[in-house]
Amino acid sequence: MNDNEYSGATEAELSFLKEIVRMLPAGLTVQDAHGELLLVNDAAAAQLGIDGSRPSPDLAPRREACRRALRAGQAVVMEEALHGGAARQVLLTTHRPVRLAGRELLISASSDITEQKNFEDQLFRSAYFDELTGLPSRRVIEHRAASLLAENSGSGRFALAFLDVDNFKHINDYYGHAVGDALLVELSKRLGRDLRDSDMLSRISGDEFLLLLSPIQSVEEVAEFIQSTLERLTAPFFIDNSEIFASTSVGVSLYPDHGGSFEALRQNADIAMYRVKNDGKGSAAFFDSSMEREALARMKIEQSLRLAILEKRFCCAFQSKVDIRTQAVKGIEALVRLRDDEGVIQAPGSFIDLAGELGLIDELTHLVLAEIVRSIDAINATFGAEATISINVAAKQAGNPEFMRSFARALEETGFPQRFMIEVTEDAFVAKNHFQAEILPMFRKLGVGISIDDFGTGYSSLSALADITADEIKIDRSFITDIHKRPRSQGILRAIESLSEALGMTVIAEGLESFEELAYLQAATKIRYAQGYYFSRPIFLEELKLATPFSSEARTNVASRPHQQNRQGYSRASGYRR
Ligand code: C2E
Ligand code: MG
Ligand code: MG
Fold first, then answer.
1. Measuring from atom 45 of ligand 1, which residue has the nearest CA?
2. Is 453 in the pocket of ligand 1 (CB under 6 A)?
3. Which of 59, 85, 118 is the last residue before a domain boundary?
């Protein structure tokens, strides 16, 4: 090998190495003692913006970092934030001072960690700020309250208000989630107006907000401020071409009067808010100790309901739906009853909503179905084997595909799904959920009938009926009571009747109690079916068995003359404490 050959090989090798350095996926630079760039590979040129991608890249921080690293005389790893226009770029760079051919140089290798950094920031933000409204999260307000408690140690006062939007679930169901979200954003803007720097508004969950007012001088001052906040909310919100009215219920607790920790203050504000909800919503109340007793009593009811479900202390009363011309029983409705701790029968009005709130209602509905299946022979003997069997399903359940799928499966497993009807209120239909489009067809396929319960009391208009596909429409009791004396209700009844007829839905009058009401329906309308105390109260099968032995005669009695024949037995059977 001669000299030429040797240096030729080195040159080839050199340019090979140069190319590799140029094309390295990591950014590589070499700077001299003044921070001037002697070598920049392609990746570094792109990272630093000196490949022409940025108009005037700012290299001063890089030079400064170089001088510092050289002075320190040892390798350092650091994050470098570069700002090119609006976008931020973050590099993770290792600077390494070296001595080469008598010169102080700095070799730097960088990788782009912008995406990781953005993700980290996002995680940070979501831990401390609510994504939708941008308000501080519960963690932040809790921290703020804790530091006030620490620095005050009893000397300064502050107020904690718990705000809950009224009927937000309805708004969400009716207008859809996008509108619900937009409403929360607008609401939080109105709530946050007029706050001082030392106050804090936080969104702690769905439609719940916490407001910390600090410092405060007097209770009156807080009451006045909350009142003006509530007044601001009374003006309608305009969202997505809809005019939406939203009110808020507020409970307030004061430090130190109502608690010495954030948790105690929050809980007591919540208790006060709950009282406002029960008293008609849309206003504010300060916590007091009588509320605490109330909350304890409520907790007891909750506990006993949980226990009742656990111990399956439920039973069903059945009420017939009667053909008002022939007196024949068309079907029956299963109405759930609870035996409380003392064995007293409770009507659903006292526990259905609570069961819904506590997430126990799905299980309850399955229990009702199980009882029907268990009693099917007695049902057939009493009401006839053709009678349809209606089960009530809460609107909240109706919009929940998971529950409805499991319920449909259970109905199918009875082996006689076509005997069943499910009763849902109109809210389930008009809500922008999956009920009408996805869930209904599932039940249709099984031959299960659909009934609109309490029609006329919900949010839908008559015109909404046109879009509803149901088999039966039950006109609410409020229209039927004294119908013969009320021309307005008569008009409404006629309108519902003709619309339902056009749409092929059976109409049934609920809560028929008197002969006069029946006479009116028979004379002035084409309504065929009715349900009500006039024909039969809800009855327990086992008590019926005691009162009248099963026979075809007993069956007719249930339909035609129970108010004379079995009245006592029935009212005892369904007698419950309200
Ligand atoms: P609903 O489905 O509209 O049931 C009719 C209610 O009216 C029953 O009250 C029944 O006893 C009562 N009723 C029937 N005829 C008359 C009458 O002539 N006059 C009067 N004043 N009332 C009459 P109940 O049994 O107390 O049930 C109340 C509500 O509880 C039901 O209203 C229904 O919405 C709900 N409910 C009952 N059972 C269940 C169930 O298993 N699941 C669900 N989700 N809800 C249920
Ligand atoms: Mg019903
Ligand atoms: Mg009803």
1. 392
2. yes
3. 118
- Per-residue three-class SS string for 522-537: HHHCCCCEEECCCCCC
* Domain membership flag for residue 472: no
> Do 256 and 279 reside in the same domain of the chain?
yes
Structure token pair of residue 24: 């390295």
Of 526, 481, 492, 488, which is closest to residue 507 (Cα–Cα)? 526
Closest CA to 398 of 468, 330, 351, 338: 468
Pocket test for ligand 1, best of 392, 474, 483 (most atoms within 8 A of CB): 392
- Tell which residue, 198, 201, 175, has the closest CA to residue 188: 201
Q: Is position 512 within any domain?
A: no
- Tell me, yes or no, whether 373 lies in a domain: yes
> What would the two tokens of residue 91 be?
């590099």
Q: What is the pLDDT along the chain (578 residues), one digit of tens a residue?
A: 444 444 556 888 999 999 999 999 999 999 999 989 999 999 999 988 888 877 777 888 888 888 888 898 889 999 988 876 667 788 999 999 999 989 999 999 999 999 998 888 888 888 899 999 999 999 999 999 999 998 866 578 999 999 999 989 888 888 889 999 999 999 999 999 989 999 999 999 999 999 999 999 999 999 999 999 999 998 999 998 889 999 999 999 999 999 999 999 999 999 999 999 988 888 999 999 888 888 888 888 888 888 888 888 899 999 999 999 999 999 999 999 998 878 888 899 888 988 988 889 999 999 999 999 999 999 999 999 999 999 999 988 998 889 999 999 999 999 999 999 999 998 887 766 678 888 899 999 999 999 999 998 876 667 777 778 899 999 999 999 999 999 999 998 998 898 888 889 999 999 999 999 999 999 999 999 999 999 999 999 887 665 544 433 334 344 333 333 333 222 333 333 32
Range of the domain at 267: 132-287
For residue 349 and ligand 1, the question of a CB distance below 6 A is answered with yes
CA distance 58 to 368: 73
How many A from CA of 312 to the centre of ligand 2?
21
Tell me, yes or no, whether 209 and 146 share the same domain. yes
Residues in the chain: 578
For residues 137 and 241, membership in a common domain is answered with yes
Tell me: do 114 and 137 sit in the same domain: no
Atom of ligand 1 nearest to the CA of 454: 3
Last residue of a domain, one of 90, 118, 146: 118
Residue whose CA lies nearest to ligand 1 atom number 7: 511
Which atom of ligand 1 is least distant from the CA of 474? 3
Q: Is the CB of 559 under 6 A from ligand 1?
A: no
Please tell me if the CB atom of residue 348 comes closer than 6 angstroms to any atom of ligand 1. Answer: yes
Q: Please indicate, yes or no, if residue 503 is contained in any of the structural domains.
A: no
Ligand sitting nearest the alpha carbon of 475? 3
Looking at the fold, whether 199 and 334 belong to one and the same domain comes out as no
Q: How many domains does the chain have?
A: 3
Whether residues 154 and 271 fall in one domain: yes
Q: Is 251 in the pocket of ligand 1 (CB under 6 A)?
A: no
C-alpha distances (whole Å) from 480 to each of 241, 453, 474, 492 are 36, 14, 11, 10
For ligand 1, whether the C-beta of 458 sits within 6 Å is no
Other C-beta atoms lying within 10 Å of the C-beta of residue 578: 6
